[in-house]
Every structure is written in structure tokens, then in C-alpha cells.
Amino acid sequence: xxxxxxxxxxxxxxxxxxxxxxxxxxxxxxxxxxxxxxxxxxxxxxxxxxxxxxxxxxxxxxxxxxxxxxxxxxxxxxxxxxxxxxxxxxxxxxxxxxxxxxxxxxxxxxxxxxxxxxxxxxxxxxxxxxxxxxxxxxxxxxxxxxxxxxxxxxxxxxxxxxxxxxxxxxxxxxxxxxxxxxxxxxxxxxxxxxxxxxxxxxxxxxxxxxxxxxxxxxxxxxxxxxxxxxxxxxxxxxxxxxxxxxxxxxxxxxxxxxxxxxxxxxxxxxxxxxxxxxxxxxxxxxxxxxxxxxxxxxxxxxxxxxxxxxxxxxxxxxxxxxxxxxxxxxxxxxxxxxxxxxxxxxxxxxxxxxxxxxxxxxxxxxxxxxxxxxxxxxxxxxxxxxxxx
Length: 389
Hints:
The chain has helices at about 75-85, 100-115, 135, 150-160, 175-185, 200-205, 235-240, 255-265, 315-325, 330-335, 340-345; strands at about 1-10, 15-25, 30-35, 45, 50-55, 55-60, 65, 65-70, 90-95, 125-130, 165-170, 190, 210, 225, 230, 245-250, 270-275, 295, 300, 310, 360-365, 370-375, 380. The strands form five sheets. Strands 1, 2, 3, 4, 5, 21, 22 and 23 form an eight-stranded mixed beta sheet that branches. The longest helix is centred in the first third of the chain and has 16 residues, at about 100-115. Helix 6 packs across helix 7 and helix 9 packs antiparallel against helix 10. The model has no long low-confidence stretch (mean pLDDT about 95). The protein is globular, with a radius of gyration of 21 Å. Strand 2 and strand 3 form a beta hairpin. It has about 400 residues and is α/β, with parallel strands linked by helices. It folds into two domains: about 1-55 and about 355-380, Roll (Urease, subunit C, domain 1); about 55-345, Metal-dependent hydrolases (TIM Barrel), CATH 3.20.20.
């Protein structure tokens, strides 16, 4: 079946293409062309002058639609993934919070089964913890935190290849051996919930930590101890060439000035947009059901107000925030939500840009950067096509 999207402004790796079209066949992009003349036999989707961009790659989201991926059930995975898919996340790496290895094995089984399904948006598993610095991890993980144990993680990673990313605190004993092993398996390895300063970050990078999770959050910046001043994790990551970062660009976790700074210093190729979404994201206004959390001012906080707990954002929210609040060009904001994460986590052969031969994962947005239609492998996601209204 041939599908043609016409009458839109298309974001290609070379820049914007006006009055072109995207040809889709069997779930793949057949061609991106500068002609929008109707192709005989094709089903035509009229973008009505809107913007046509690659589907977003979500590589740090804990849940959505009322479910958390750490529940490790098929229902949780399907519900949360569908909730984010409707907001343009055509590729997703479900994120587990710190939990037991028994629960991790359960999640691996669910993830592997979903990945086997035809045209599944689930691309692999992301684990955050349980090897975290307790001082930086927050009380919600009490009882699960520990130091890296090769008798735990090696058997797990010998059994499955679905784990594509793992985040831990690099200052813990055994963390560097962990990173060397995960990188040998091709797993993206990130620093998170950390107090590491420059020498520690440099050593961590050399061991295999190539990415900084939710940059600026759960890590210190420039600080003073007694009469002396020290660089924090933030400055250390900036100084480490080749270490990529991600930002929770919901406009709440980080102010617009910091989003601009990250964009300016790390650049599009080294900066990803992530939601770090909790199960209350894309939950259609349903009530919160966990006494540990409260929702105020569009963000989820610990009930004692000691910290932000996670975001309620979806991927389209991040793009809007970068453009409308931080003043980032739309093309760059979209690339940080699609092309860059696809490159960094190793799926750029299939995802991240509108190019011949790649999956036909496409988002059509209006001039206010609202999602008006989502195509996953060339098929319109149910409930997302609002272009005719």
C-alpha cells in the first residue's frame, strides 16, 4: 500500500523542504521528494500547510496513562507506551526506576515479548538504578539502593539483549567495572543521581559513561565547601568533550535560561530532550493515587515538597518548550527529540529522521506545535488525526 503526505513543510536532514511530499510503502519511507504532485494509486494525506517531522524517540520515561513501567506487566507497558505514542513518541525505551532484580527480570520478559510484535514502538529497556548514591537518590527508592554487583548484572545481561541503556552513580565502588562491561555489550551507560566532580567524571567517561541523565537534576553545580570553591557535576560534564546530555525540557525542571545554555554549550548533536515522565503523564486528568506524590503547577513533587519527583510531560511538550520559552529554532528542537537520541542509543539506521529506507514514523504538527497526526510505521495512530477539525 502506497501513502503520500503532501502540502506540508518537511524537516529533512538537509533542512526544511517546502511543498514536497513523503512517500510511504510497507511501513518504510520510500522517498522524500520536492514534488507534491499526486502519485497514481497512493492514499493521500493532506498536511494542510502544517509541519511534517520525524517521530520522536523517547529514551527516558518511567510511565504514562496511569501506569508505571516498573509494574513490569504487559498492561502497564502497553498503556504507558500508547499514551506517549499519541503525543508523537513513535519509538520508546521504557524506563525502570530502582527496583528489585526479580522485578527487572519480569520487565525484561515483558519488553522482549513486545519487541517481537510487528511494528512495535518499544525498542528496548532503560534501567535507572538501583546502583545509586543514596544521598542523591531521594527517599522513594529506600530499600532498593545498593552498589554494583557483577553477580547480579552480568547474568542479567548475558541472558537478554533488550536492555539498551543503564544509568547509575559513577562514584560507587565497582561502578567503573560496571560501565566497562555494559559498554562492551553496546549498552548506553549514563551518570545519574551523582555528586561526582571533574576528576571523577573524567574517569567515569574513560570507563564508558558517555551520557548524563536528566542534566542539572539530581547532581550539584558549582559549590563551596568551607572557604574553597569546587566545580560540580554540571561543570564537569560541560568540560568533558564527547559526553552527551539530556534535559527535561518541561519548563519546570529547568528554566529557559538553562535550556538555552545547554543548547549553546553542548549543541544539538550532544543534547537530547527527555520527559522523565511518571505514570501521571498523559493521564487525561485522572486523580493521583500514591500518597508519596502530589501534583502542583503541572509537575509531580514528593508530598513533603523536598524535591521534584518527575514530570508530567510528553515529547511534544518538550519541543514546544524549547521553541516557545527557550527560543530554540524548531528544526533543532525536533532534532533533539528525534535524530539525536536515535544516534546516541544506536537506532539511527531505522529512526530519527525522514530519509529513504527508514521507518515511516512521522509527526504532523500545526503552527502552534500541537500534534495533529501521528504515523507509526506508516499507519495513523488511532485518535491522533485531528487535521480536518
